[in-house]
Design goal:
Elements lengths: L1 E2 L13 E4 L5 H12 L3 E6 L6 H6 L4 E5 L5 H15 L4 E4 L5 E2 L7 H29 L2 E6 L12 H21 L4 E8 L13 E2 L7 H13 L8 H13 L6 E4 L6 H12 L1 H4 L7
Helix pairs in contact: 1-7, 3-4, 4-5
Bound molecules: NADPH dihydro-nicotinamide-adenine-dinucleotide phosphate.
The site of NADPH dihydro-nicotinamide-adenine-dinucleotide phosphate (NDP) has 29 residues, from helix 1.
């Protein structure tokens, strides 16, 4: 862990301690910057922590960088232990690290599916397990799960990505009810399209193509990378919205972000459920 000077001298009782994954770019970096601007202490983690050198240099007393690949679950426990040792507590954890994969379900290999689940589900679950004993002891804390609008609905070409985010949402919804009595909040963030590194060449993965899916998945293969740098969402504004939601007395469980993330599909799902309600209710035993 690379701490700035003076970290030990600070009065830790007045500010929060954040631990953020995937902080080298995009939302993770914006959230780290917003937390630092609010006067908090941030343990910003990344696969390449040197990408955070400027952030640490700008806030040497409150910004700390650490190496973390979130799929390395053994390292997660050690990092949480180090954070509590250095800072005495963890107030906010942000499970942010992630990337996109475009491919039809048939095109996506078992390994690609498992890699995405490691990144978006097993890593975040391990981090949650590691921090909860500390947050329960503190009787306070917040867990921010960076899901996606794709964590609530999906479309051709992003089934594997959505599956990993739906899974994270299912776990997080139950978690929220389990930890609320211990004073711990869970916030599931569901961004639409934001201008981060997400759709850029390096980050976006692509499954090997099967020509039969050209009509359904082809447009996504073109449009998603084509949106890079032009998305409407501003990650700095998303970070501000997340801080606002966390500060609320009644924080929401889910926070969609961006005009495209407002869930028109929820109305469609409700209408479908009601249209088939009689059939759905007809399957109980008669006695
Ligand atoms: P970026 O590509 O800008 O940031 C993703 C971050 O995740 C990078 O810092 C990357 O690090 C990191 N990362 C990837 N794999 C790992 C790993 N195995 N261990 C640790 N860090 C890793 O994209 P975003 O900021 O947009 O992505 C952040 C989150 O937001 C993701 O979970 C994504 O699914 C979600 N999201 C993004 C949307 C968007 O439109 N931008 C929409 C909805 C959700 P490195 O530099 O090492 O590659």
């Amino acid at each position: 862990m690379n701490a700035g000077t003076g970290a030990a001298d600070r009065d830790r009782t007045k500010t929060r301690v954040w631990l953020i994954t995937g902080a080298s770019s995009g939302f993770g970096r914006s959230i780290a910057a917003a937390a630092l601007a609010a006067g908090d202490t941030v343990v910003a983690t990344a696969r390449r922590p040197e990408a955070l050198d400027d952030l640490v240099a700008a806030h040497p007393d409150r910004a700390v960088s650490a190496q973390l690949d979130v799929t390395d679950t053994a390292r997660i426990a050690a990092l949480v232990a180090d954070t509590v040792l250095w800072h005495g507590r963890i107030d906010v954890v942000v499970n942010n690290a992630g990337l996109g994969l475009v491919g039809a379900v048939e095109e996506t290999t078992d390994q690609e599916l498992r890699d995405l689940m490691d990144l978006h589900f097993f890593g975040p679950a391990a981090l949650v397990r590691a921090v909860l004993p500390h947050m329960r002891r503190q009787k306070a804390g917040a867990i921010v799960q960076m899901s996606s609008m794709g964590g609530r609905f999906t479309f051709p070409g992003v089934g594997a990505y959505s599956a990993s985010k739906f899974t994270l949402e299912g776990l997080s919804e139950a978690l929220a009810a389990e930890v609320a009595p211990h004073g711990i909040k869970v916030l599931i963030v569901e961004p639409g399209s934001f201008r981060t590194g997400f759709a850029g060449g390096g980050a976006l993965r692509r499954a090997a193509e099967i020509p039969a899916y050209e009509a359904t998945v082809g447009p996504v293969r073109t449009n998603l990378p084509g949106s890079d740098g032009k998305q409407e969402g501003d990650p700095d504004k998303a970070a501000a919205a997340i801080l606002t939601a966390l500060a609320a007395e009644e924080a929401p469980l889910r926070l969609p972000l961006g005009n495209d993330a407002i869930h028109a599909h929820l109305e469609a799902a409700r209408a479908e459920t009601l249209a088939w309600e009689t059939v759905s209710r007809s399957t109980d035993f008669d006695e």
